[in-house]
Design goal:
The chain has helices spanning about 40-60, 70-80, 85-100, 105-120, 125, 130-145, 150-155, 170-180, 195-205, 215-220, 240-260, 290-295, 315-330, 370-375, 375-390, 405-425, 440-445, 450, 460-470, 490-505, 520-525, 540-545, 565-580, and strands at about 5, 10, 15-20, 165, 185-190, 210, 225-230, 235, 275-280, 300, 335-340, 395-400, 435-440, 455-460, 510, 530-535. The protein is α/β, with parallel strands linked by helices. The longest helix is centred in the first third of the chain and has 24 residues, at about 40-60. It has two domains: about 1-25 and about 30-265, PtsI, HPr-binding domain (Enzyme I, Chain A, domain 2); about 275-580, TIM Barrel (Alpha-Beta Barrel). It is built from 23 helices and 16 strands. Helix content is about 45%, strand content about 15%. The strands form two sheets. It has an eight-stranded mixed sheet with strand order 1-8-7-3-4-5-6-2. Strands 9-10-11-12-13-14-15-16 form an eight-stranded parallel barrel, surrounded by four helices.
Amino acid sequence: MTLELQGIGVSRGIAIGRAHILFHNKPDVREYLIPAFEIEQEVDRLINATEQAREQLKSIRNQIPANAPADVASFIDTHLLMLSDSSLTKVPIEMIKTRRCNAEWALQLQRDALINVFNEMDDPYLRTRQDDVDHVVNRIHRILADEHVVVDHEIPDGRLKGHIIIAEDLTPADTVLMQHQEIAAFVTEHGGATSHTTILARSLGIPAIVGIESVRRYIQDNEPLIIDGTTGMLIAGADETTITEYQQRLIAFEQHIASLSRFKSQPTKTQDNKEITLLVNAELPEDIQSISNAGAEGIGLYRTEFLYMNRTSPPEEEEQLAAYRDVVESMNSYPVTIRTFDLGADKTVDGGRNIGPTVTNPALGLRAIRLCLNQPSMFRTQLRAILRASVFGKIKIMFPMISSLQELTQAQRLLEMCKEELDNENLEYDRHIETGVMIEIPASAICAEMFAQKVDFLSIGTNDLIQYTLAIDRIDDQVNYLYDPLHPAVLRLIQMTLEAGKKHNTPVSMCGEMAGDPKFTRLLLAMGLNNFSMHPNALLEIKQIINETNLSYLPANTLDIVNMARRFDAETLLEQINNPKH
């Protein structure tokens, strides 16, 4: 009997193999009182367990091949940094001393406090960082419980080759070790499209599906499976016809991926000679290598939040200057668009602790540009650093979540104040540095024409724009089925923004996930988008679609899609757009 389970496809590709059910039994953490004379011994237990966890991760990091994507090492490094962070090490030690509780309980209490902070964040990418906290804490807990970390020590080399891993969740370290053993794919019950593990899967080219709740209940160990990481479909008990069909799809997909390399050195333009600019989104300095491999023409979105994470105070100007300088110099004269910090309502200047009353709805609270303007000293420090870095390469400044001209005016005024300060200090900067705004809430899209007259460029952030327009959280399993880029309200807001840019000769780019999704490329081209910014791994495929597109061959009614109320009608037309008749 064939069983089909639908999840979220997070890393493209097809895999056919046998299931390996992985059980990560979470240690049973209980509280008990420590006698006063054993407090120092308990502190040493925690310190030693943390050090063992660090050594395990270093060992895993040493197994990474030299030619592996930069993402691979950077995610392991993130966990190593967390093991050195005072909020995860020193705070539990103080709890042991003051509360006389056991190490496991102190660590669990601090874990819960950190998870609460991440849960209240609006930004989906930042919210999924709670997974990293759990991964690190669970590793220490297993050591404290004198348990092995299963994937590190209990799976012999070669045992997993060609298998499809079925697990509740996986850590980046798990993923690295399993890729080393040549697994075919993995499926997890939890996780999202922006978690470190799924980003790592994409970098390593491992087909992956997340979000199939209770999948381990339905799949038996060693059972033959088919995984489609593009559609998010898991098939068990497939008949011969289905297996043959997916074997052919697998061969075709592998040939397709191999053929993409030829596009790296080609210019990006449609067959009717419309030139397109392809940029990439980046977060960490380590991303630069993958950017170079993709052949991008610059960075369309450089996130700066990583500088503010896992610390007790915000970064100083010189630290930020060094980070921005490294990135812009690495890009070899290609432009880098730096987004000023987009932190949530609860994530303020003390590195993650709450200040003031609890926020009822962080999504509608003090975040992004609102927080920047609420903390002008912190904001000016970043602006000064960006300005000073602009002498080392082409930098643009982008303000997030602008909702009114008043906010834009305030941000621009602070930028001018920073320029005056640098002039008085005889410090150099690009006096013609470009500024722009992200269009990521309905208000800014509706008022795009006003913004287009006040800035040098606009950038559509589709992730937030869709969420705010449709009032849904795309990482909430209960409502994420409503996340729909083809909703007429979303498409109309995108169209309004593109038309505003065209009218006032203001360039418009798109840096949300929609820009890197192949099924929307031809539609966005038809709507007038000329600048795409995406994850590096998506770039060559998007370039292929662009280079093989002749806009004159697209259906005459292509733009009617913005007025289609029924999703079925919109999907039918999208299919025609993606398969035009010559």
